[in-house]
Specification:
Elements lengths: L10 H14 L3 E3 L6 E3 L7 E5 L13 E5 L5 E6 L1
Parallel strand pairs: 1-2, 3-4
Antiparallel strand pairs: 4-5
Length: about 80
């Protein structure tokens, strides 16, 4: 039987993830926006861009946007927390 934690799946945070995934997936984070790049200045104030192997704090901030990028800087995953 799977573990179910209220508020962890679906609801508002799921919608925020979907919205940001649609905007960022497959793009790179840069100084300005175009077809292949999303401007860093347009990310929420509370965000962090994480590369594979980067160290990060384990504190949970529900409104913080975590942008996970690959070795080439392309967004691979978007989460909140």
């Amino acid at each position: 039987m799977p573990l179910v934690v209220p508020g962890l799946m679906g609801g508002k945070s799921g919608d925020k993830n979907s919205e940001w995934q649609d905007k960022l997936m497959g793009k790179k984070i840069g100084e300005s926006s175009d077809e292949m790049t999303f401007a860093k200045k347009d990310l929420p104030q509370e965000h962090r861009v994480l590369k594979k192997g980067d160290m990060s704090t384990m504190d949970h901030k529900p409104d913080r946007l975590n942008v996970h990028v690959g070795d080439d800087g392309t967004v691979e995953k978007v989460t909140h927390g």
